[in-house]
Amino acid sequence: MLNGSVPRAQRLANARVQMPEENDERSPPGIFQPSLLLLPISPLRSFQSIVELEISGPGALWSEDVCSKFQDLPDFTPAQMEALIGLLRWRQLGASANGNTLRVSQYLLMFQNQIEDRKELRHLAQKLKSLGRTDVVQAMHEQKDLLRWLGPVTPEGQLIKEMRISQWLQFTTALSVTNPTGNDWRLLATKLDIPRTFVDLWMQQGQNPADKVLKTFMVRVSEATMGRLFDLMTEMEREDLAAML
C-alpha cells in the first residue's frame, strides 16, 4: 500500500461507532431513534359504533336519537332477512343471511347507502309491516322530516272504518280544531269534493265535524284506506295528523 495508508473501508470497520445516548438532545439528525415511532394511537372503534356513526353521520337519513331507538329493537330473524334482501340492489348481506340474525341499524345502513329516491322508504315500510316489524316502522316515524315518505304505521290497505275507536276519536278531534291557515277538516272536505252545503251545515252543528267528513268519505269511496288518508294529510301539510295513522 502506498505511504503505509490504511484502506478507507478498513478504517471505517475499525472505528468505534458512537451511539447517541438515550434522550441525548445532541444526537445528529438522521440517526434512527425508536422513540420517534411511539405515536399515540386512539382506541379502535367497534363495528357497531362504526355503523352508528355512518347511519347518523352527515348526509344520513337518521338522527342520532332515532338511531338509538333502532339499537333497542330486536334483530331481524333469518326469515325476515331473506325477505329484506330483495330490497337491496347490491346483495350486501351475502353470507350473513346463512342462519344468522342482523341488527336493525346494520340493515338500515345498507339500505341508506343504496337508496336513490326517498319514495323507496315507503316500499321498505310496507315490507316491514308485512313481516310483522311494525316496531321498526314506528321507530322510523320518529324521524319527522321523513314522515311523508314512510306512509302510515298501520297497513296501507286497511280501511278507515276499521280504525280503532280511540284512534278515530283522537284523529277526528284533532282534525276538527279550526286551523288559522285553513288546513283542517274543511280543506279535507274540499279535497274529497264534499258539497259546500254539507260543510256549512256541519259548521253550524259543531261537535267534531271531522267525524262527519270521514264518514262521508267512507260512504262515497268504499275503499277509503288509511294509506289514502295519510297522503291527504301530508298534502294538507298536517304531518302531525298523519303521524296518528
UniProtKB/TrEMBL annotation:
<protein>
    <submittedName>
        <fullName>Uncharacterized protein LOC100498557 isoform X2</fullName>
    </submittedName>
</protein>
<dbReference type="Pfam" id="PF00531">
    <property type="entry name" value="Death"/>
</dbReference>
<dbReference type="InterPro" id="IPR000488">
    <property type="entry name" value="Death_dom"/>
</dbReference>
<feature type="domain" description="Death">
    <location>
        <begin position="177"/>
        <end position="245"/>
    </location>
</feature>
<dbReference type="GO" id="GO:0007165">
    <property type="term" value="P:signal transduction"/>
</dbReference>
<dbReference type="InterPro" id="IPR011029">
    <property type="entry name" value="DEATH-like_dom_sf"/>
</dbReference>
